[in-house]
Write a structure and sequence with these properties.
The protein contains twelve helices and no strands. The radius of gyration is 28 Å and the shape is elongated. 79% of the residues lie in helices and 0% in strands. It has helices at residues 3-20, 24-39, 47-63, 67-82, 95-113, 117-139, 145-171, 175-191, 195-212, 216-230, 237-255, 262-269. By secondary structure, it is mostly helical. The N and C termini lie far apart (67 Å). The protein folds into three domains: 3-82, no CATH class; 92-184; 194-271, no CATH class.
Length: 271
């Protein structure tokens, strides 16, 4: 039997003792023996078993209420795992985050169907109400790192919901509702310090609204803003898509009677 096999056998025995008996001391003893065996093995072969040993050790520390030791062991395990190319870090979402995300995904899926804009609208509006409530809760909480992270997460979610809702209203040709939703999105992006992240997307949506309303001069201005902003978002697929759509819509205006200018259409083709 190799040293690695011995370590695996001791780990399995420690797991059985932990799960099936109340013998914490025996479990800890087997675990320490397995750790000693693994420490003597060189190379990456032992890493998987080592991380599983850390996992069981953390569970033992938590069971015996040695939380500081559990935290320190977790830090060591993460540092070891981070050196591996296959390392994956998982952060569990809170119940409220999952709840809000469900509304967003349901709204997006219904919007993508194209035949269910009303269903998408209902999901997104309800989701926005829930996120609004989460902001109220966070506003009254102490300004810890966790709360700040939560606020940023919900800010991104709110912006995504508002922009998808604007798209739904655009599909339904409810242009006044589109403008109101985009105004709220602009306000939120400014308040949350995310204007630079979303300005090209908002500019495109406003341009399309103006275009459908026949306000072509305004549409050209907003498409121009979108093109300027999306230049800096080329590494982002959405930024590239927005730029392409803004170019096509601008070209359509310059191909029409009111602003007919094939020279400008040619300039757009080279962008």
């Amino acid at each position: 039997m190799t040293q690695l096999d011995k370590a695996k056998a001791r780990l399995r025995l420690a797991q059985i003792l932990f799960e099936e008996t109340e013998s914490v001391e025996r479990c800890e003893d087997e675990l320490n023996r397995a750790i000693t065996t693994v420490d003597a093995i060189q190379g990456s072969m032992a890493l998987d078993i080592q991380l599983r040993l850390y996992d069981l050790q953390i569970q033992l520390f938590i069971e015996s209420k040695q939380f500081r030791l559990a935290k320190n062991t977790l830090k060591i395990a993460l540092a070891e795992a981070a050196n591996q190319p296959s390392f994956i870090s998982i952060k569990w979402m809170s119940f409220s985050q999952v709840y809000c995300l469900t509304y967003l995904l349901s709204g997006i899926c219904s919007k993508a169907d194209m035949t269910q804009p009303m269903k998408a609208q209902l999901f997104l509006i309800e989701g926005i109400k829930v996120v609004d409530r989460e902001f109220s809760v966070n506003d009254h909480a102490s300004a810890t790192i966790n709360v700040r992270r939560n606020q940023r997460w919900f800010s991104l979610l709110m912006m995504s919901m508002l922009l998808h809702l604007a798209d739904v209203f655009l599909l339904k040709l409810e242009l006044i509702s589109v403008e109101e939703t985009l105004l709220k999105a602009t306000y939120w992006s400014k308040v949350c310090g995310m204007w630079d992240v979303f300005k090209w997307r908002i500019s495109l949506s406003i341009g399309m609204t103006m275009h459908l309303a026949g306000r072509l001069e305004k549409a050209l201005d907003w498409y121009g803003l979108c093109l300027n902003h999306s230049e800096r978002a080329q590494q982002d697929q959405e930024g590239f898509d927005a730029k392409t759509l803004a170019i096509i819509n601008t070209a359509l205006i310059y191909c029409g009677e009111r602003y007919y200018d094939l020279g400008k259409v040619g300039d757009l083709a080279s962008r």
